[in-house]
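User: I'm curious what two different proteins look like when written out as structure tokens. Can you demonstrate?

Assistant: Sure. I'll show them one after the other, since each token string lines up with its own sequence. Here's the first protein:
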Amino acid sequence: MRSSRQILVLALVSIVALFACRSKQDGSIEGSIVPPGTPARITALQDGKEMLTVPAGGQDGKFKLVLAAGNYSINVSVPGSPHPLRFDGISVRPGEMTVLPPIQLMPSSGTGVLSGKVTPPRPGARITLMYEGKERAAVQTDHDGRYEFKELAAGSYVVQANAPGHADDAVPVVITDNQKTEQNAVLLPIASVNGVDWTSGKIRATGIGLPPQNAANKTVSREMAKRAALADAERNLLRTIEQIHIDADRDVKAAMGNKKVERKIQGFIKGHTIVSERELDDGRYEVILELPLSGPSGLSRYIAE
């Protein structure tokens, strides 16, 4: 029979072996807080459950989370700040270290307020506040598709909205002290539409113009063919835009039943960019036009207004 001491030794060996095995399966997430010395807390969440919380260490602002392999969301919170940062989709691999870029914290709190809604109303959409090119805060929309950021320092920001199955939207906004600013966002549902590149956020259309048969000379013929190509490309842009859905039940064409919306869309089309143009061998002229889906001058802004 084994003595009590032998049994204890075997148990300790088993525990050590278990931890050694687990350490090989674990990975880590490392990063740093800017500015360093800020008393931030870093929390790893998995499926909405808090798995581990560590402080950002000392004056260098560095932190390390040792976690089992898997995908996590990382929350960064600062005492007294109403806006925790959240980074989703961070992968941890066995025995590997995942390094996050330096996390730039929100500037000191102020008295500005930013609010708005997502069109169509979508609960749970992620609204991200960008400052100087870095993510500074993020919230989710409520059941009415509304969001709000409080205690913001004055400055120029960018509001980004995203949700699964929808094209991202982004628009700049200026926050001033003691003022409430409203900025809405539009999340266009992604659907197959010829001429729409959802990845790059561009709308494109091609137009072909025929040369007139009674032109005074070649220069005039070419110019008239170019004008015809532009008009044809604009018509094709309109046909493409009309097919883009605003929500599950309504596309842009249906919205253009409102004369005010129709005028806005027509004005939007006139703001096109000529991507390329060329004269074809038979005297015809080809023009390719482009418009943005989102951003300050994108289709989403015309719909949001």
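Here's a second, unrelated protein for contrast:
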Amino acid sequence: MPDEVVKGFMDIGTNSVHILVVKYFQNSLGTVVFQDREITDLGRDLYRYGKISKETLDKCRLVTDRFTAAAINMGADEVRGFATCAAREAKNKTEILRALESDRMDLRIIQGQEEARLVELGVFGAEGPSERTLLIDIGGGSTEITLSEGKEKLFIDSLDIGSVRFSYGFHNDPAEPMSDDDYDLLRRRVGMTSYRAVHSISEMGFAKAVGSSGTMESLAELCAGERDGDSSYMTYKELRELMTRLRKMSIEERYDVPKLSRGRADIIIGGGAIAEALMSLFGIERIEISRFGLKEGMQTDYLLSTGERDFDVKRSSVLSLANRCHYDAEHAEEVRDKALMLFDIMRDLGIHRMNNEQRQMLEYACILHDVGEFINYIRHHVHSYTIISNSAMFGFDNEELESMAVMAKVHHRRFPDLRDKDLRNMRKKTAVSTLKCAMMLKMADILDRHRTRSVSDIKAEIKDDDMVLTLISADDIRMEIWSLESVAHDFRKVFGLGLKTGYKKP
């Protein structure tokens, strides 16, 4: 691959068209430079009338032409377009291809299992999930189901159930409230369609469930609005209560529901019925929500198709975000080096038993800890938290993003404990390791307080009930030592040891 190349990726879906423009660098997953979305209603025509009208195709052509032009204006030498369920099911699919194809876009209609593969690749990246994970992607016309662990795809299928299909394909008026009988009929249809998937996956089991697509994101936003605003997950109980309320509303009433977009108000009942039924059938009490999907899968698949293998998805995501925020690379790398030095020294001394995955989270948090300065310095630690937790970086799950965000937030000002609101929603093991890593980051940041890279080495030993640090520096670092002494109380709460510090010349 050249040192720099720009590509455009277009997802022509049943409900809307998405464009993603990516700039690739050597050994990098690429940086998104533009993305947009427009509802085109292909599925509403298809499931209501059996074919897609010329008027709808003209609208879709306008959108794809404008998106293609935008990508080319941003330097893309190619735009790849993948049309999904509505295009592959339409009786007039030849007309669709003829209407949308252009010299500037390579358009293909992909099959359901290929769509499922690309969605899984977009959500989890080339390395796949670290634990066995069920992924449910509810589209407008189809729902893609995958079960994967690492790079192994244990089950993959595309089901003929979707939010637009359910809203417009069964003679119910999506503008009217839905009766309990009609809603139960949709749920039973999900059960019949998903029987093979439920049976196979239930036999194999899974450790975690993840949902993707606009439908899942909207449902999670609505559930979170009744809770604490955290839309990174939703529970089955929350979803059932939400759907009980929504299906009794007319579309005019749904328009007034906070967090529900007008463009999705007519199809949210169909999509919610699918989500509720699948969570029940698979026995899912809580599902995490990913903002990634097909277009991100296209982004990664392109890179893999070039033969590129020597890239670290997580590291690439972290560096892309750091560079977009114009971070101070020298300071970030100094903090990283000293924090990892502390991590290794303290592990060797038996002060903690954290593993290399937690060490990696600390490394990435160090690189990103000051990205909030991009907004302003005064509250940069809070801005860093907001940027990281909302970054949706490739390769990271929601808990990992939250853990790194908390580490960045507490490197400055007050240090929290396990009762802090930012730690309450984490698993206890994760919260404890987050606090330990956060303390190391805070100490490392203090050691480069004046951004002079003054500390060349660190020695440590345990004496009585204290960890004694000896800092090696050619400079006068008494101010750094005073700052370290100020965190001794919090250090004892986290590690159960006192903290004493001194320094000597090399």
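A detail about the second structure: The chain is about 50% helix and 20% strand.
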